[in-house]
Specification:
alpha/beta, 9-stranded mixed sheet, 11 helices, Glucose Oxidase, domain 1, 2 domains, binds acetylphosphate
Length: 324
Amino acid sequence: MSTSATEKVVPDMAELLAGSPKNWGKWGPDDEVGCLNYLTNDEVLRGVSAVKQGKTFTLQVQMGNPAGDPMFPGRKDVQRVNVVDRGLYMCGCGPRFPGNLEYADDMMVMYLQGSSQYDALGHLWYGDQIYNGYDAMTTIGGMRKASVLPIGERGVVGRGVLIDMARHRGKDSLDRGETFDHQDLINAASAQGCEIQKHDILLIRTGWIGKFYKSDRADFYKDYIEPGLTYSPELVKWFNETEIPNLVTDTCANEVTIDPESGVALPLHNALMRNLGVAFTEIIALDDLAADCAADGQWTFLYTAAPLKVVGGSGAPVNPIVIK
Ligand code: UVW
């Protein structure tokens, strides 16, 4: 237990999530991809059968956009620097090859969660254990268990459904700290004329990342609290029973930053990702896809993604592709 600045007694994560369901061991003692195991060959074909028009959408935000890179506070923007370019050749220093070709080369330093990304299932934990019961000591110096690598090796393909919570509530973007739950998702789906089916990859638009690009940066990050799903035992039960393999949103953390009820930070990362094995995909650009879905009434599609295969990574950038 701890006390917040407002003297509210905030429970430990272990206390809040006591009795919360776990899928540890469900896919064997060596599993590192969790609910992505629900995406069987039949589920891939179900996704393919959602393709009706051949329209494609890429869902990664731009990296190194002059407006900045949206990310969870505490991380720093992508730094991309030129190593070789025409300027180097003009100084007579460019690498020379037979035939005199010239080229441009660059390098980048970034937080692996500093752009559109997949979290490794072991990215966050409480107590001494990460997803599937692996010892949290395995995170030291690089993740030896439940890193992002197995997700990159496997890839993610299935039927996706987009729920546009912002549009459903008549807003460009949900407000700071605005919450919603599984029942709100079900209601929004019904208003959109679709349904969230078992094993669907669940995409939720809040408008938050779109708002980043329209806001003053200092204002956007001031007393940072983003909108999102909020924890309840019923919501966790719904995710578990609906066997959602992957939660994909246009926020930095896929959930309201501080649970308004308990005061605990990011409980769903633990209840859904650490305990159930739901893959988290964050900072995803959904505005164009949502506008198209609202225009043609097709909210379901084939979703495909594979994070970069970073050995030991706690997450990795991704550019998902959706085909309607
Ligand atoms: C944190 O690392 C706090 O969360 P995220 O999963 O949003 O990167």
